[in-house]
Amino acid sequence: MSTPQYPEVVRIAQDLIRFDTSNFGGGKANGEREAAEYVGAYLEGLGLEPEYYEPIPRRTNVAARVKGRDSTKPALVVHGHLDVVPAMAEDWSVDPFAGEVRDGLLWGRGAVDMKNMDAMILTSVADILRSGEVPERDLVLAFFADEENGGVEGSALVVEDRPEWFAGATEAISEVGGYSISVDDRRAYLLQVGEKALLWIRLVARGRAGHGSRLHEDNAVVRLAEAVSAIGRTRWPVRLTPTTNALLQGLRDLTGRVDDDPDALAAASGPAEAFLRSTLRTTTNPTALTAGYKHNVIPERAEALIDVRVIPGTEDEVLAELQRIVGDDVVIETVVRDIGMETPFEGDLVTAMVQALGRHDPGVPVIPYLLGAGTDNKALTRLGITGYGFAPLRLPADLDFTGMFHGVDERVPVESLVFGQRVLTDLLRSY
Hints:
Oligomer: single chain
Largest sheet: 6 strands, mixed
Number of strands: 21
Strand order of the largest sheet: 3-4-8-5-9-20
Distance between the termini: 43 Å
Helix content: 25-40%
Shape: globular
């Protein structure tokens, strides 16, 4: 039986998935070096001159510049990250690092976040250059390490130590935007024009160590458990921004509803409901617990990690409220703190992205939204570069695409990758 010959964008995505670039956070990672070298070799094959930056062993970043027709126009950064969150193989239906195509979908860690987009970037530039064309303006192609750890060992170091890579650039596009959702059986695209702020915090509870058999009222584990439970059960109020107000109006226009309940409007988006509801408020999710070392020893210290995503501009207010929630006996340590962003849904690049989608899926509306998570666009803001999320994908209405970010059995339709690569090529050729 012959092996199916998939389009190049799918084959490149398969190859990238097969590099296990798992990032466990806190400096523990497999590293991106082999994946970065693969990307660099591909770029060299297009006649480009990639540059590497590896500030920490195996945490490799790679970039190249494509010269455009009009050097007076600001350059556009098109970027992705090469690391992925870990995948526990026993939980998956397939090998998460095999890059398998099954039932018309590409499966594997990174198929959604974000080796799919990495492949789209590479093959879109390849289509332009192989045809003998050049883009309208300079394109800075960048592939970062460590995004899944907040970029502290990746994009944050690159913008500090290699700012010349981005000379002349004012705008950027990357992941988690430009994909379709189904709203009351009507398709719409979400264009990401902002990101919530990031606060990764550690809760530290202390008590008195002792024998596990004792009557013991100064127990660090109990103190921590109560704090984690209190945070996990907190439901933060809706707090709208210009972007989320625009999102809700777009949902009203699509559904014909006049409902002012933001959660009810988000519920019309089907599988994307939870993703959109998280953009309307702060979220505080416990993600890890560490305490103790033996069954019959009460430990002196217990810790928990909390992933806090904050409406831009409310960081200090939220930290103060979290301290009130856990009480003075629990210490809050900030592990990573990064900015939130919000950009108006207007301007030449926004118009170009909307028009590119419209040429390939005519008549389908495009709605702005605020990403509840974060991307490497945060780091680029330090260089004055405004970032958007535009990894265009036309998706089946019943596919819970947003639920597969960091999820089990991550997968993306082959047809969606082909569609996205065509839209991205169109944008990069003409903008």
